Amino acid sequence: MAKYLISFPSAAMVVPDGEWRAVGRDAHAVIEEAKTAGVYVFGGGIDESVSPVLVSANGTFKEGGYPWAPPLNGGFTVLELPSRDEAIAWAARIAKACRCDQELRVFGFDPHS
After folding, report:
1. pLDDT score at 112
2. Source organism's superkingdom (predicted)?
3. First vs last C-alpha separation in the chain
4. Are 4 and 79 in contact, with CB atoms under 8 Å apart?
5. What are the residue ranges of helices labelled H in 1-113?
6. Contact predicate 87/3, CB 8 Å
7. What secondary structure letter does DSSP report for 90?
8. How many Cβ atoms from other residues are within 10 Å of residue 101's Cβ?
9. What are the tens digits of pLDDT across the range 47-104?
10. What is the model's pLDDT at position 110?
């Protein structure tokens, strides 16, 4: 089975003020369904209140990420599923719960990690 990364950038999540509680409830419900189904690997979101640090091989570091790359933010979930079709179905469930489109990618899991 392959692992799939289902994610969205923060800017994609445009939710009317009165719906945030329902979004949280619905998103947590989908994750609980994935856990019950035995397909959940891990998930979460980038803490945007903490700036990234770019660390070099020699141990030096500086505030900020790669200057040429778009910022990494938003939420993600990794599920282990038997097919791309099932991954698309789960991504659709997450999209419905979060009220925003989700990006689906095959996660290059390293079995030695």
Report:
1. 87
2. Bacteria
3. 17
4. yes
5. 20-37, 84-98
6. no
7. H
8. 13
9. 999 999 999 999 999 999 999 999 899 999 999 999 999 999 999 999 999 999 999 9
10. 81
State which H helix or E strand residue 6 sits in.
strand 2-8
pLDDT digits (tens, 9 = 90+) for 9-34: 999 999 988 999 999 999 999 999 99
pLDDT at position 108: 82
Architecture in CATH for domain 2-45+73-107: 2-Layer Sandwich (3.30)
Lookup: tokens for 20 = 């945030």
Structural tokens at position 78: 């990794």
pLDDT at 97: 95
φ, ψ for residue 15, nearest 5 deg:
-120, 130
CB-count burial class (<10 Å; 0-12, 13-18, 19+) for 56: exposed
Q: Could you tell me if 104 and 6 are in contact, meaning their C-beta atoms sit under 8 angstroms apart?
A: yes
Helix (H, G, I), strand (E, B) or coil at 14: coil
**For the chain, what's the residue count?**
113
